[in-house]
Fold this sequence. Notes:
The protein has 326 residues and is α+β, with helices and mostly antiparallel strands. 41% of the residues lie in helices and 28% in strands. It is built from 11 helices and 14 strands. Strand 2 and strand 3 (60-69) form a beta hairpin. Helix 2 packs antiparallel against helix 9 (220-234) and helix 6 packs across helix 10. 41% of the residues are buried.
Amino acid sequence: MCVHPQTWASLTDDWTALASRAAPPAGVFLYPQFQSVWWDLFAQDATLDLCSVRAADGTLIGVLPLMRRDNAVSFIGDPEVCDYMDLIAAPGREDEVAQALLEHLERDDCRAVDLRGLAEGSPTLASLPAAARARGWAVRAEQEAVCPTVALPATWEAYLDGLGGKQRHEVRRKLRNLAEGGARVSLTVERDPDPVVAGVSHLLAMMRDSRRDKAGFLTEPRQAFFLALGRNLASRGWARLYLLQLDGKTVAAILGFDTGDTLFLYNSGYDPDYRDLAVGLASKVYCLRSCIEERKRAVNFLRGEEAYKYQLGGVPSPVTRLLLTR
């Protein structure tokens, strides 16, 4: 087992193939097409420590997507826009990749490691703490956030039946209010790069207009990040832009990521002129129905405990932070 320093260009293709095979619970967040966009825009004061882990025959069995700041090591990314972060390991090779990480850190005399964003079910949570303690590291695990997730049944009616009585009533009432308004209600799903990027621009404008906290959050670098991310992921077929429309006018939008049987609902916004119709919540309802029709297994609402996530049946899934010191 050998660890080799890498560049984005030298590792991207093999990394993508490995992540697709590993099918990590963190989905698209662990692909280079996501992390490289973050790196290009936000890593000015960090040093890249990107490494491949290879078996004796040269086969890629893991990726260590690391960076260094102020003598501390962490995953590439930050929790403001990277809901999940993790190691990437071939199935069945997770223990070897954990050992490779520790050997790499010890070789460089690293004393502090801050690994945030570990999803529930991450193999790293099963393999790394015990391996680190066995090598003399102190390990502390703490919950840093939750990502409410909705398990999807086979039919829309089964989904509604699975909600509590009050939740089911509210969902049906929101849909009835839209229908009784007299407008033609439709949901458009964009997947191609150009309409996704155009739609993300509209989404960002709605986010700024509808919520003061979102307006403050959307700095110029973050807006550039979301636009670049939309194009980068749409070019791979992973971005989904859900547009709720009344008589053809977009009144709410959702940016989601899809690499398999789970949709990650990343950002959303709505036109404040239609606030009384609760189009923001209605867009999520229509999105859930679309995912059920596509036979998705789950919708992950990602970080945050906004009330609507639980109203729509979300169950909190913990995000863990590991701190290693020696």
